[in-house]
Amino acid sequence: MAVDPEKFKALREKLDELVEVSPIREKNREFVVNNVLGPAFGEMDELIDDSRPPRLYVFGRSGAGKSSVINALANKQAAEVGAVEPTTVDSELYHISFPDRHASWDVVDSRGLFESVTPDGEIPADTVSLMKRDLEEYRPDMLVHVMTPDHVRAGKQDFETVERLREELGTLFPPVVYCLNKVDTHASPGAAWPPEENPSLAGDVKTNLEFVSQVLDEPEKTAFWENQPLRGYEFDSGENVGVVPTYAKEKPYWNVETLSWLIGDFLPIDARLQFNQAQRRERLMRKMSRSTTNRFSSIAAGVGGAPTPVADIVVLSSLQAGLVALIGSYSCRDLEWATVQDYMSAVGVSAVGGLGAREVARSLVQLAPVGGQAISGAVAAGTTWAIGRSAEEYFFNDNVVKPSGLLEKGKARFRGASSRSG
Q: CA 54 to CA 275: how far, in whole Å?
């Protein structure tokens, strides 16, 4: 995804222009601005205009692979990685830049916090003071606790230390995601890989995941990927986000995408965009595409069911043009009108290039026949959904699927939407 904030502003100006030239009364124009474009783009405004780098605090014992996890998440060499000697002697802030994707991250790589914890579980004062100092200074959005299978099997000490630190630090302690790294550790030489193809290793991974859940007292857990508990769990408590097993030493990584998804889902909204768009992970971008399509379709249902006699086609066209542009940007196209025009030409709307906002809106009407100015909520939502899914097929799969072929399925999804007579 490549959402340039400046191009997003230009797109919003185009949509505002479309509304301004629409043949509707002033009070109806206010309805469009306040009840259509506002709700549709309100979250995107916050997501993009207020966008800031996410800040992650990565901690754990020396040798757990903290730097490797940072590099795997970033999909590039961003943190120093050592083979034998610990490379992190003190907490270090990495500002990781992704200039081609209009994004950057701040990642704090801590030193080995638990190296000097005593056998009876006492936390040395320097460990508490170091982490407290770090959290006060860096104010991270999320903590990533990296451990190996050996660390997990060593007992409950590290987990109890984290819980006691949570009590000590109170509100300074953000949500924690547990990363069970180096899951290949106990695989026999030459054994099958990945874990899904190695029953013995898969059993070890599942045992460790269950152990972490029990130690954290997280009985309410859900497999992050349905029917794939081996890939990790999401917790319901809010304090602990979940636990994810990974292999992050070198490519091909294993299950780092799940860790990325879980972090992205729990980041504050203003930190989410730059985290997501920095990673060229298709499933992550498709998820955002589906979510945006569903949100815009629900808003379209409100347009179709509104008692205010708005010129529906013009209003919906502006909404749908914005949807197409956003989906194109999720697939790493530029967020601009040229992306909308490219899609429209591909699905059969002719003479689109170079047209202004009003002409683009009129051309959009050709994408899915809805007939008339006053339409039902189900048709408005279904048409918008069909255009969104058609755009997803085009931008992600390079496959031309006309929205008219998806319209009936779209209307069926929103058949309960409010309606009004034409």
A: 6
